[in-house]
Structures are given as C-alpha cells and as structure tokens.
Amino acid sequence: MATSKSQRLVNLVICLLSRPDFQSARQIRTSVQGYEDAISDEGFARTFERDKAELEAAGVILEKGRSRDADESIGYRIRRDDVELPPLDLTPRAAGVLAVVGEVWAGAERNAELIGALNKLRAAGIHPEPSTLVEGRAGDPRELELAADLAEYAGSGQVVTFSHTPAGETEPSTRVLEPWLVASREGHWYVVGYDREREAVRSFRISRIAHLAAGNGAASHPRPAAAEVQQILDASVRAFDATISARIWVAQDTSAELRACARASTVQQRAGVAGEVLEIPSASLVRLTRLVAGAGIHAVALEPPELVAAVRTTLRTATEAIA
Amino acid sequence: MTPRSPLPAETMLTVLAYFQDRGPVAIAEAARDLSLTESSLRKALGQLWTCGLPGYGPGELIDLAFSSEVTFGGPLTIDGDFDEPDAFDDDPDLLESAEYVEVTFSAGITRPLRLTFEEAVTLKTALATLIGRPEVVDQDGLQEALAILSSISTPAARLDAAEAAQVVVNKYGDAARDLRAALETGHAVRFLYHSAKSDSSRIRIVDGGRVHLDGEHTYLRGFDRGVGEWRTFRVDRIADVEDLGPAKDIGPEPEDGDQAPTAHIYAEIPAGAEWFLDEYPFGAVEHRADGSVRVRVDYYDAAWLRRFLCGNATTLVPCDPELRAEIAETAARALAAYDQD
Questions:
Q1: What is the CA radius of gyration of chain A?
Q2: Contact A315, A297 (CB under 8 A)
Q3: How far is residue B131's CA from residue A129's CA, in Å, rounded to a whole number?
Q4: How far apart are CA B192 and CA B271, in angstroms?
Q5: If you count residue pairs, one on A and one on B, with CB atoms under 8 Å apart, how many are there?
Q6: Could you tell me the pTM of the whole model?
Q7: Which residues of B touch A126 (CB under 8 A)?
Q8: Residues 69 to 88 of A: which have CB under 8 A from any B CB?
Q9: ipTM for this model
Q10: A92: distance to nearest CA of chain B, Å?
C-alpha cells in the first residue's frame, strides 16, 4: 500500500523524535517510509523542503545540527520539549470551563482552530465534562473572528488596514494600524494600536470594523509595555461609555431594570408621588440614561450631573421629533 | 501517486496521542471527543497502523488492538499479532467492525503537539468571552484555564484576556454565582426578578433551570412555579438567589411557548447613528442614501416599546407619526420634573 502524505509526515516526526543524533536528509530518505517514491534527488529535495515547512506551520520545530553522515553534514532532529504539550495540571472546574467554551463556540468561525486546540488538550488527558446545562452563543461570531484575526496580526507584528465607522459618523474611514492589544471589556472587543495615518495611538471597537486585511509590511512603531497599553484601552473604553455611580428617584412599583442595578434604596416621596431613591454603585452612563429617560415620569436622575444632562438631552430630542 | 489521507498529519498525531492516553476507547466516544466522523477516524487509525520506523525490527511500527466489547482490564483482543505492517491490508474488516480500539504501541508519540499560535489565540479569544459571566462558568476555573493556556502557547499570542477580568469581574455579583451553583446540582431556585417586560419586581421559583447564552446577555430558562409555565429570565436582572433543594419533576419543555416577539413597528436610525444597529437585534435593516437606516423593532409588550423608544430617542425615531407624538408627550412630561427643581 502506498504511503499517504500524512503518513509520511507522521513517520518523519517519529524518526526525528526517536533518534538522539541529527539525521541528514540522505539518512531520512532511506529510513522514513514515504520518500522511497521519489525518483530523483531533486524530487526528494523538493518534497522534503515542503514537508519541513508544513511541520513548522503545525508548530513542529526542526532543530538543525551536525549529522554523523560523512557525506552530508547538515542534519535535523526534534526536541521533545520544543514540540510536546507539557504536562497540564487542570482542576475539574477549569476542565469544565473548557467544555463550556467548546459548546458555546462550536461551529462558529475559526471552528477548526478551536477544535484543534481542544482536541490536543483532550489528548493530553484533560477530560472536559460540562458542569452546567449551557446552550447558545457567547457573542457575535463575526466579532470573535475579527478579534482572533487581529490578535494574530498583533502577535506577529503585522500592519493591518480596515474600514471603521465611529459612533456618530456615517462614512467609514480607512485606517492603517499597527495593532498592539486585543481585549474584551464589558462584553465588547477592542483593538489598541498605532494609527499610521493619524500618527497617534488609537483604540477601536471591533464591532465597528470591517474589511480587515493584513499585508502592509511589518510594524515599526515602538510598542509600549503591556501595562501601559492596558491603561490606554481602559481610558478609551471609559471615553466610549463612562462607568458612573448614580442616585435616581423611581416611583413605587416601577423601573424594575433600574432596581436591578441598585445596591440600596430609601423611601422618598417626590412631588407627592410615593417612591424610592436608588443608590447605584456602578453602571454604564449610556445604559442608565436610556433607562431613566425611558421610564418617563417614573424615574428622575438626581446625580451625577452628566447623567442628568444626558437624560434631559434624550428627552428633549424626543419632544422635538413630533414633526 | 501519493494517496490522500482523510486527515492532516497534525490531526493524526493528536489521534495517536489521544488513544495512547486513554487505553481502550469506544470508536463512537473517540469520534465524538475529537469532532470526527467515525468513518474518518477509522481510516486515520488504519493509516496510523502502518506508520513508524520500518526496518528496525518488530515493535517499531504503531500497533493497535481491536475488540467488539470491553472486558474488565482491557479490550478482548480478537487478534493480537499485528507485527506485519500489512496485516491491515490482509483484513480491513477488522478495523471496520471494531467497536473498541487501543493503541498498544505508539512508536514514541506519547503527548499531543503544543498549541499552534492560531489555536492558542482562538481558544483564548473564545474563553475571554466568558470573563465576567459567573452565571455561565466558574470564574476561578476560567482564570486557571487562561493562565495555563498562556504557559503552553507562544508569548506572541498577545491577547491579554486575563487582564480584562479585573475590569468586569463580578459584574452580576453573588446572584449569578449562586444561580450557577444551584443549577449545577439540578436544584430549584428562588430569586427576586426585576422584569423589564412587565416593569415589576417579584419573587420567582424556578425548576429545571438551564442557562442560555445569546450574545452578550445570559438567560435562565426554566419552569416558573408561580405561573405554572416555562419562562425566560435575564440573569443580570436576577437578585438574592436561594437554593431550594431538589427541583420538582416538571416534564418536558413545550415547543417555544412565550418566545417569539408578538408585534413590531418600523423606526429610523438617523444618519450618524448607524452604530446603534449593534445595540439591539433589529430586523429588516435598510440602509438609505442619506445615511439613515430604516429598521424593524420586534417587541412583546407595548409599554416596553414606549420605554425603549423614549430612552433611545437620540438614536431611534418611530416612523408612525402618532407614536412619535405619544413619545414626545411622555418626554415633555418627564422633562417637566427637571425644570420644576
């Protein structure tokens, strides 16, 4: 039976892992089943080069060194520590998390990579058993795909281009970015990096990005320390949507969603209407504005002033939409 | 002509390491674990069977044992003597019909390969979507999984998911954690629910609950004892969760009772606010030449719709003039509360 390409590559890995000394290409050709079909030296050399490249793409690093072959000094071997997954000591609760991630992202974009990763962990003796009945999707699959792509480009130091439509604008603009960090905040993904055309550090919400492409050469702007990039991101996320603590009056038996955000409440009448003042320790300014304005006369923002201003703006806009 | 393998070499190595780790495994179970069809798994095993280093004596080639059932202490080997590399050719039916397979010699492949850069980034990104969602997964377990991933993937996988946790951790607080703990044991739960749909806050008791994810929100689906029906609750509106012990027997969930939105209106997102499309699952999205977007808003409850429209007045305007006037009237009365101060 002829040897398939996958079999040949498996044989090559087994050969280079099991021999302690460096194997020359000539030695490999005679001892690895699958190369005997090569008719010419050139044909073998081409196949062998392709195989090496394919293994390296799969993370199998071939170490080069001096072989014992008198006719050919360059040899190859694979060091176990370089390529083998080290022993993993995962608790059942961490394994349970891996099971859930497999469930909620199955079949989405980048499924092959996700399955490849989880299969290797299973083959390493981790048995992810879901601990909760969980179903559904953990986020927008397109956002996940873009986030993973951008993280890859950030990791390999590539420059990317994409079109971006910021909040409050209609026309997308094309950006050229050296990506530094991809991270999620409050359920949304962001990328931070050096914007080549604006010549400044910029953050972008990934859901507002489209037409992502790499291939504009290598990143050249110095990348700040990881902690600094984190701070840049946190600052711009606050600018996108501030997190505030607030005091809001709500009428009795209304405004359930606002109550869900509150830590404490005190009974208080307002203009003769029974109700409570809610203390909200931490919530998004945008969300609170929507809820307070949406509640109409049943909720009144008391503090902070930026919430009061935002609610008034929303209500005034609604009154002006009669036309 | 080089024949094609059903699987890439990388996957074949993972298959080999998987069987090496497990001992005898049912083909059906292994196929499920590895997300492969049984047929391609059998073909891959058939190909692995002739891999190794021939010409160095017996025991240098990968060896498999098959059985149709597992007896205590290992599989019942039908034919243990497979030293000849072409034994498979002699009897292909053996692998085709075997229900259990064991790798008895793996030619030195004992561990799977390290995660590739792409695999590590993808798994980290997917894991990061569960940060700050204690109702879905145990957050300590999540941090543990992320930390171990960092140690087995290249440092270039610059997706600092673990750091993101500091910002959003305990978003839902103890309630979400208590809820998951109770559901894990299959128990009934009692909690205070702040309903946005009916704008009320009431105590609910739910049997047979399970967690449903939909994008950035998490829902509890279960049988509401109070109303005697299946209901869906948004987890970030749940508070004061109490474990009530074993759940009542509730029978199967009916086909989608209260799920589909019952009504809809059309509305316009003004030019410049196109990003608002991300914020709600609008239907029938129509981009217009002037930059505005016409959308369909599906809803269950008329009062909810009015709160939604008034709260989002800067980014969403109903097309119906009567509804617009009604919202404007509501807003004007609300605005008066500020002006009287």
A1: 29
A2: no
A3: 19
A4: 40
A5: 423
A6: 0.69
A7: none
A8: 80, 83-86, 88
A9: 0.73
A10: 8
